Amino acid sequence: MANKRLGKGLRALIPDVPSEESEDRKNSIQDIEVRRILPNPFQPRENFDSAALENLQNSIAEKGIIQPITVRKIDDGYQLIAGERRLRAVTALEIEKIPAYVLNVQTDEEMLEFSLIENIQREDLNPVDIAKAYQKLLTDCNLTQDEVARRVGKERSTVANFLRLLKLPATIQDSMRAGHISMGHGRALVAIEDASRQVEIWKKAIKNNLSVREVERLSQKSSSSVKKEKTTAEKPYFIVEAENRLRSALGTQVKIKHGSKGGSIEIQYYSDDELDRLLEFFE
Asked: What is the pTM of this model?
C-alpha cells in the first residue's frame, strides 16, 4: 500500500527506525493475517468512541490502512502493541490481512512499557487514560516520575498533574473520559479536599457549561470556606495565612500546629518523587 507512515509515538520509542524511503523500512512491515493477532492485555484506552470507529472504518474501506499497527511475535501468532482501533475496524470490514511492524519485545514488562508509551504519545487519548497509563508505568514497570517523564518526553510536573486526576471521584473521572469536562476543570477540582464538594461543583460546571476559570474560582471559594470552618475557632488568623502561603509555595497540603510555646509544620507528600521535589525547596 502507498503512503505508509510511521506514527510519532513509535518513532519516539525507536528513533533509529529507517526513513520512509528506506528499503529496510519497507521490509520491516509485514502483512499479517488478522485472525492471528491477539488483543493487547495492557491496552490503556478503556473506552472506544463508536462514531469515531465507524469513521475510521469508512476511511479504511475507501483508502486502506495508512498507518500500520504494531505487534510482537508470540508462539504461533502475534500480540497487538498499538493500533487496536485500526484492528477493530479491519475486523469489522472482514479484511483478512493488515500491515504491521513486528517489534522484538521479549518480556511482558517490555510489552507493557512499549504499549503504554506508544499510546501516551498519541494525541487522542483522554486525560484519565493517560493518567492511568502513567500510574501503570510507575507501579508495574517500577519507574520513577522522572523516568516516566523522560520516556514520554514530558516535564515531571506534567506527569504529576495527570496523576493527581486519579484522586478525583470515579464519576468525575468518567465525565472527563467522555469529554464533558477538560483536564483544566479536573485540575481545578483536585484542589478541593472534600469529595462531596468536588462533585457539587462538577455538577454545576456540567449544568451551566462553566469555563475552567469559573470552576477555579468556585474551587478556591469552596476551599477557603472549608478552611474557615475548620480553623476559625482553633487557629489564629496569622497561622491560617501562613498555612495558605506555604500551600501556595510548595504546591501541597500544609498544616501548622500552633501552641503558646511554639509548634510544628506538617507537609504532606504522595510519592517519593514528590518528596524529592519538596526537599529541593530547602536545599
From this structure: 0.58
